Amino acid sequence: MRGFLGVLLQVGWGLGWLGAWAASAAPYEVEQGFDGEQELFALLEDGTLSAESWAALVSLRRAGVEVERASRGVLYALPGLTYSEVDARLRTASSRGGVLTEEETRRLAPFLVKRGPEGVSGDARWMTAFSASDSLMPPMALQLRAGGLAGLRVGLLATWARRRLGALHREPRSRALLVGTPGTALLVPKFHGQWMGTNAHVLVGTYRLGFGQRLTLDTTSLPAPDGFLPDDGVRPVGELERECLLVEAGCDAATRGAEVTPDFRWDEGFRGVAGTVRGALGEDWLLTVTGFGSYQSRSLQRSEVMDVLSCPPASVEKGTCEALEVLVPVASARREKLRARTLPGVFREWAGGGNATLEVSPRARVGVTGWGASPVWPDAVGRLDFRLGSRYPAGGAFGAVGVDAAWGVGPVDLFVEGSRGFDSAPGGGGGWAALQRTVVSGTGRELEVSLRYRGRGFINPYGGAPSEPEGLGVRLRYLHRWAETWRFRGQVDGAGGLRRLRASARVDWRASSWLQPSLQLGARESGVGQEVACAGADAEHDAMDSCSSGSRYEVVTQVRSVLSESVEVTARYGGARVVERGQSAARWDGRALVGVMLRAGDAARLGARVEWKDEDLSEHTRLRRELRTTVDVGWSVLAALTLRGRYAWVLDLKARETPRHLVQVDVETRF
Q1: What is the DSSP letter of 387?
Q2: How far apart are CA 476 and CA 451, in angstroms?
Q3: For the chain, how far is it from start to end, CA to CA, in angstroms?
Q4: How many other CB atoms are found less than 10 A from the CB of residue 275?
Q5: Is the distance from CB of 568 to CB of 596 less than 8 angstroms?
Q6: Are 588 and 623 in contact (CB under 8 A)?
Q7: Mean pLDDT on 156-184
Q8: Contact between residue 305 and residue 298 where contact means Cβ atoms under 8 Å apart
Q9: Cβ–Cβ under 8 Å, residues 109 and 32
Q10: pLDDT given for residue 20 in this prediction
């Protein structure tokens, strides 16, 4: 065994030092700049953070991490910590007086909470957004959390919507599907109450949960989920949208080209009850059992649903029916087609399941996870079902059962999970999937090799592992820090039997506080080795022509300069060579950004950015050429009150339209 581990370590460190092509096990693209959700959203907007990383960090910030009670997996989810560093912190926590160092506590402060045994504490956050072109009152959202007495905590999300579609129903006479005219509504989509004890945790309301390697069940977006979290999250308002929700012909002249601020949106997790109990088995083993039940109303995109009554039986069996056509009554005898993609509350879902994990040590465990769900279509809509390619399998009930295990010794951690999906799809019945990860970590460095398999028929809408085509997949990640001077992060990912390839690498150098350059490289290839017909080609006469299945190669350079504790300047420029699917010629994209951040201690902050993006530098009418100016303001009026604001000015240079203006206001109080 020792000889095998020695060989494994030599191979692992050898691959690790080949950082120019290997990739990072650190789950996030950057490790700092996470002062709040406003800053996280800015990093998502400019492409620094991926959507998955943004979702995980926001979820982690909203839930809060109690370091003294956190598991190994939860601590690893914090930015900037490898598994080896987490283990070292846990071993020396008692002698050092805390799990994290002073520098880590300061850097990770936005994610940390410390809840005392007595007294009431909490926070309230009110948000709104509006634009100069709005003809409606602004949308609003309120997040509220409070608790502290006897381990009880409560929370909710309430929103004011102005463009909420009515319920989907079928007209008895024509059998057409209709939705109510968009209107205002006060909604409470998320709420929870929870009790946390020493060996038990119960939550009633809305929640997210995940286990193991995220293959069988995970809705948390965290890199190492470990049970359930309360869910009261809401998405920030992004771009403006068309005011008219109908197809072009159904819009009147006044609203056809008008834009408005969209309503606040949110992800639909589970809603019901979840509970965990844990207890010792003997002197060394710990058993944790979690169960959950849910009854949730689910929204769907029109492209995911088919009308069984109006589709031929053969197409129904194959799941290839046309996307759902929905009408909106706009007058007493006039109906128009709906253009909006998402339909609220299309079906109800019963779901339930659980997990049992036997832990031998913080690094060795085995767990079993199983869950099932059954969609219920309202009687008012008649016979609907999911189309081929939807997140959900057609036919009825679905679910998954999986087994996961972890084992670690020295710098090596091994993780594995196998899962079997079940569904009621015609000719389907589910499929198999597997995921294995090997992580070799040390102080400031970490290498991960991940192998994946997804069989035909494995459809899991509540799995958090990477989504990919059928077949094998592999991922290499590597992270290396040299003291406080250099940081390298890279990743190579192949999926679908290596038909899809992605690679990225980023190097950050801190030469001094005022000179901190970075270089980022990215590459993506789709359909490697496959022939793709050129767009517009005649199948009979041009059958021999083949074009690209899609590729993108990108280089981004950045210089960050911290001139003082109060002034920070950032400049970035990037270019990309893009070949669209079905095309033979490449186009060149470009983007540039200049940003300034001014701080007055911890009380006030002012940030401004000017960003330019151009899709196809050689063409002046197609795609986008956008100039965006953003100003962010934050002011802590009192110790318990913070005001935040954002103003965005956006001009489409190719469309030659008038500039768009969007203002967002965020007021947060803590008590």
Answers
A1: P
A2: 9
A3: 55
A4: 18
A5: yes
A6: no
A7: 90
A8: no
A9: no
A10: 30
